Amino acid sequence: MQCSDRLGFPKTDPARWRLYSDELGATQWKYLTSDKELDENPQSFYVKYILQNMTPEELDQLVRETNSNIDESRSQSFNTAVKGGRFLKKFQEPSGIFPMQYKGPMFMTIGYIVVNYISNNEIEDSTKIELIRYLVNTAHPVDGGWGLHEVDKSTCFGTSLGYISLRLLGVPADNPVCVKARKTLHSFGGAINNPHWGKAWLSVLNLFNWDGVNPAPAELWLTPYKYNPIHPGKWWVHTRAIYQPLSYLCAIKYQGPETKLIKEIRSEIFIKDFDSIQWSKHRNDVCGVDLYYPHTTVLDIANFAMVQYNKYIRPKWLVKYANKKVYELIKKEMFNTGGLCIAPVSYAFNACVVLIEEGADSELFKNMLRDFKDVLFHGPQGMTVMGTNGGQVWDASFVVQYFFMSGLAELDEFEDLIIRSFKFLLRSQFTTDCIDGSFRDKRTGAFPYSTKTQGYTVSDCTAEGIKALIMVSQHPKYAEKVKGLIDEQLLFKGIDVLLSLQNLGNFHYGSFATYEKIRATPLLEKINPAEVFGNIMVEYPYVECTDSAVLGLTFFTKYYDYRHEEIQFSISKAIDYICGAQNPDGSWYGCWGVCFTYAGMFALEALSTVKRSYNDDPVVRKGCDFFASRQMPSGGWGESMKSSETHTYVDSERPLVVQTAWALIGLILGKYPNKQIIDNGIKFLIAQQQPNGEWVSEGIEGVFNHSCAIEYPNYRFAFPIKALGLYDRMCKGTL
Ligand code: LAN
């Protein structure tokens, strides 16, 4: 059955979708077509709920269940947390994960579409329909274009990718959605003004010419790692993962098939006749609205030199040799990540390389097409490719910890939830190291952000994961039940990895970055070719990652003696870093959540673990005062994503649940003395809870690279529960 959605676009039947998750947390959506399958596979609560497929009776029943047997002797704040916990519990998969549509960035889906298109693989109708629907539903209401992320203004990059995606998915050029988007694209000067990645995708599709794309030299991989200060192995993991296949594709100037549809699109996306475009003149043309990080003169000179080198000097054998090396590295990346690669952008570019090297019928390529579905996620607006294959480990470790910190873990009704997530976390710890020569550090014992298969250590995910495991295994109510499940040697290895990630060299002493230590100078940013993102070339110190490291390490030392001295040293250097990173107004700039509120919460919690509080510590005092000064008249807090872009605190239009929880956690753990301010915030959280226990999603919780919004749908449960529970304990004097 196909229903009709906005603007007459078809919609699939929500009752036929199922979400499957395996033991290691990989999720895939399937659209069931036979009635037998439908009967045999009842829809999970999560799917029913988010696809809005619940009957009014079921919705009433949900409210009843959430509110039944509430212990009236407990405080209102605690009971609000309980109700939130009851709702969240229903989202949990048998594997222990909490699924989520990790959406926001608008430049991921193109990769999925391109890889299928150039390999002549038909995307299933149900997926196609929902991919189209997502694009239609997220088009800018005024101009019909798309931006870098879902709440962005329209840009040339976003609009080109959105438009081309719709066309490749089968939407005709004269459809009003396409007509409107095309007009906007033309107002940006047409697709010629795309930033680097846009130009690269268009070239792969044969909608652009590689002469108009700044080069990415594969030869850099042949230089000696030890002596070359700008060796790509020293770049940030994501940037090197993307530029690896890109350098391959650009070296051979790969172009997909020139089909009738491609010829049509060529005539639609430029404002000039395609054949008359002098491509090499447009290498540096980028639409003004897209430009977040303009070229430096150094980059322009380097690009010019490389173009001359490619034209006059670059021998064919060297291209072949360099590409062979790059392909070996891609295969290593695939081996280390169970074929998943670090994230969807590099995955799609790598899949193009695998297609070229192995062919469309090869096992390797077919597996890539199959596993690509791990990052496709369905939701109320349709289906999209997510920022990663989920955030399973990160969310599970927060939920586990916060159920303990709020006191919910004491209740029998949450025991199963905790043990399931605990077991998922145990299964998610790395048990092997990466293959030699892949420029990766030791990872055994560490944790990823999403799944074990994805295989990339993240510093804060490791710290939070370790903390969650210890919390369960040391708690009197759970210790017996999970006895013997933790492998302590593996836990110690995780601590080894965490300690090894601290920056103790020339750069940002005491801090933690994301995936690795800082390996090269930030001066490399001068050759950042991406144009739409800042700070992507190397690792940077992140105050949130450093805070989480402190949380993990301080908690570990409560129960274990392992490497005690070194851990104490590490904590004290991390704390110095955190204090030094505070702004004069008392705030901290956060890079992964919005923005000062997110970082302030983490920093105040980290400081609280080394017993620093409002009355005796000037850093905590300033941090809390900053929060207090930002409270809105309603009692809540709300910060706009503009803060991340502009590096100054900007209020959101209205107070937000997640941000209120963050501010409250900071204030409560910092022991802020003005209880009235905290009370008002708690009242706001209580008032925002729905009768079914839920807090409604309010959009963007996270960011990356200063300019791109990304949603963390489970934060709206995890953090309010933590704030309410901590408040309850604060009032009882048991904090
Ligand atoms: C993420 C998501 C999780 C996030 C936290 C764990 C929250 C953070 O504390 C550390 C950094 C990390 C792991 C992170 C890094 C960058 C990611 C992977 C993302 C924001 C999700 C998507 C993003 C990735 C870089 C997108 C690809 C785009 C590029 C500009 C390379």
Written description of the protein model:
The chain is mainly α and 735 residues long. 48% of the residues lie in helices and 5% in strands. It has a two-stranded antiparallel sheet. A two-stranded antiparallel sheet has the order 3-4. A hairpin with a 5-residue loop joins strand 1 and strand 2 (10-11). Helix 7 packs antiparallel against helix 11 and helix 17 (415-428) crosses helix 18 (459-474). The longest helix is centred in the middle third of the chain and has 21 residues, at 316-336. The protein is globular. It starts with a strand and ends with a helix. The model has no long low-confidence stretch (mean pLDDT 96). The structure holds lanosterol (LAN). The site of lanosterol (LAN) has 20 residues, from helix 10, helix 18 and helix 21. Keywords: Endoplasmic reticulum, Isomerase, Lipid biosynthesis, Lipid droplet, Lipid metabolism, Membrane, Repeat, Steroid biosynthesis.
**Span from first to last CA?**
55 Å
Average pLDDT confidence is 96
Largest sheet: 2 strands, antiparallel
Uncertain spans, ≥5 residues at pLDDT below 50? none
Tell me the number of strands: 10
Subcellular location: Endoplasmic reticulum membrane; Lipid droplet
Main location: endoplasmic reticulum
Domain Squalene cyclase N-terminal: 87-344
Keywords: Endoplasmic reticulum, Isomerase, Lipid biosynthesis, Lipid droplet, Lipid metabolism, Membrane, Repeat, Steroid biosynthesis
